[in-house]
Design brief:
2% strand; mainly alpha; 2 domains; single chain; two-stranded antiparallel ribbon; MetI-like fold
């Protein structure tokens, strides 16, 4: 049993490909061993269903096939014909001798061609699956009729759709939404990474085209004109350091704070919890913008530090440059990184406090009593009882927090945007900063510099990093018989 759980990911992939192979095998068997009506369904969808009395279903499949043919002949054919080049007619004004004025020509729009082409390919792929499934369904109806078994009527099919197969009916709308708002935008973003879509190739005034792997090569190379390789290395390392550090500082801080508040000797527990809940209830962007003004070069914190002599002390130990009259909390790379992590602890600990409090209240107290009888001190009880239970219950949340912090846009952007400016010319050449995460770098490339091609490449790599971390960590968390061991 233990080895099966440990190899769950590998067996899942194996079962997935086995299922695909079985699906095509069943379709091939349906085409070869079926009667004439089922074979006719390969050309005219619904023929096999009509032969078995499924008139409405057969007619719906036939109408759907006609609509698909019209779709391919009009919308899909025009866009797929230009999909290989993403357009060749540049937008320009030409003189119209009829209107005696300049009008726009019938130009190509590269992004629309890319989007509509991908939509067309997805619709074609979905229709092919539906077509194959209709042949398999017609063959199953044939087998049912040959065995003399009952073929369900339309009324029975509708009843099943609201009873035994209601889960399919219920999932139809969410699956459609996922395809429209998640799958298609994701595929378009991936496709943009293989084009030269940027500020110099901005439709409709200009065309962009496919460039293959050139953008990926640019992200991993450094030269006098292309510095993305240098910037990507720095930003990626800081992103991973930030994700791990911010997650575990908030995690440990929340647990320790929960232990402190829940301690029998602590008084006014409700008051302390309320204070942290109020801090959590304040919108995060308000808190971060307020803290940014506090720690500005001429902010209140710097004023206090200067008045009490802390600024001069930091100058003496070399932590602050002699030419500065303030502590560069958010304007120096090293100071800014440390301050971002510290401020994030203040922002993130209340969430972990609530989670840790709920877990601590559910740990059986007899375990602590037995440990006390055995002579275990507070540290040993924390190490052997509290933390194992916390990690068991909050393990998935901990993994999710690491991924969320990789994409933690708010904290980094709101604390540093308009405040921190890099002095590294190589970083500036690719519009990156020492305090950037991959996601904030991606945002700046798209929002400020319209470099969609490199932003798409970075977006793909963010997805890869998050996927690898999630798969590896979840595989470790669910490995073995951890649930049985905690009982």
């Amino acid at each position: 049993m233990k080895s099966n759980k440990a190899g769950g990911t590998g067996s899942g992939v194996k079962n997935f490909f086995a299922g695909i192979g079985r699906y095509f095998y069943e379709w091939g068997a349906a085409v070869v061993h079926s009667d004439g009506f089922v074979k006719l369904s390969v050309v005219l969808m619904g023929a096999g269903h009509i032969r078995r009395g499924k008139y409405l279903q057969g007619a719906a499949l036939f109408v759907l096939e006609i609509c698909f043919c019209l779709f391919c002949a009009t919308f899909a054919a025009d866009n797929l014909a230009k999909f290989g080049t993403l357009g060749s007619v540049q937008a320009q004004k030409v003189f119209d001798p009829v209107l005696f004025t300049n009008v726009w020509n019938d130009y190509d729009h590269s992004f629309k061609i890319l989007l509509y082409g991908i939509v067309s390919l997805i619709i074609i792929a979905m229709f092919i699956l539906l077509w194959m499934n209709s042949v398999r369904s017609a063959y199953r109806l044939q087998q049912t009729a040959e065995k003399g078994e009952h073929i369900s009527s339309l009324r029975e099919d509708l009843h099943n759709a609201l009873d035994k197969k209601y889960y399919r009916t219920l999932l139809a709308l969410p699956i459609t939404g996922v395809i429209l708002f998640t799958v298609i935008p994701l595929i378009v973003m991936i496709a943009v990474a293989f084009t030269n879509y940027d500020q110099q190739h901005m439709p409709p005034n200009a065309l962009f085209t496919w460039v293959g792997l050139d953008n990926f090569k640019a992200l991993f190379s450094t030269s006098m004109t292309i510095t993305f390789g240098y910037s990507f290395q720095i930003v990626l390392i800081w992103t991973l350091i930030w994700a791990v550090t911010s997650t575990f500082t908030c995690y440990i801080g929340g647990i320790l704070l929960a232990l402190l508040i829940n301690n029998k000797r602590t008084r006014a527990k409700k008051m302390w919890r309320t204070c942290f809940i109020i801090a959590m209830a304040v919108p995060q962007f308000v808190s971060l913008l307020l803290v940014r003004s506090f720690f500005a070069d001429q902010g209140i914190v710097n004023t206090i530090c200067s008045n009490i002599g802390l600024t001069d002390l930091l100058k003496q130990v070399g932590l602050v440059s002699d030419r500065l009259s303030y502590i560069p909390f958010l304007t120096d790379a090293n100071w800014a990184r440390v301050m971002i992590i510290l401020i994030n602890i203040w922002v993130g600990v209340p969430y972990l406090l609530l989670i840790a409090t709920g877990v601590l209240m559910n740990i059986p107290q007899d375990l602590y009593e037995a440990a006390t009888i055995d002579g275990a001190n507070a540290y040993q009880q924390f190490k052997s009882i509290t933390m194992p239970y916390m990690l068991f219950v909050t393990g998935p949340y901990l993994i999710n927090s690491v991924v969320q912090n990789i994409n933690n846009f708010n904290v980094i952007y709101l604390l540093t945007e308009g405040v921190y400016e890099t002095q590294d010319l190589l970083l500036a050449g690719s519009h990156a900063r020492e305090t950037d995460l991959l996601v904030t770098w991606l945002f700046r490339l798209t929002n400020n510099y319209y470099n969609y091609k490199m932003a798409s490449v970075i977006g793909i790599l963010v997805f890869v990093v998050c996927s690898v971390i999630t798969l590896v960590c979840f595989n470790v968390v669910i490995r073995g018989n951890r649930e049985e061991a905690m009982r």
